[in-house]
Specification:
This protein has four helices and no strands. The chain is an all-alpha fold.
């Protein structure tokens, strides 16, 4: 979806530049393994909308995430 958004932006902003990257391409395996070990979240669960993506989004702007469930 991020790449589609970049394409739409570029179509409306000739001369603009966009760089898109996925967190998993920028995060070394040992770091992902450390996160799994520290949080007890299995690596098979650290994907879309899971621990790492939500944590990254909260770091960028906590208002982007819903309030915790009670």
């Amino acid at each position: 979806m991020i790449f589609e958004a970049a394409d739409l932006f570029l179509a409306q902003g000739p001369g603009s530049k966009v760089m898109a990257a996925a967190w998993w391409d920028l995060t070394p395996e040992d770091t992902r393994n450390d996160i799994a070990a520290q949080t007890a979240v299995d690596r098979s669960e650290d994907n879309h909308a899971a621990l790492v993506e939500t944590s990254l989004l909260m770091r960028v702007d906590a208002r982007c995430t819903p309030a915790p469930l009670e």
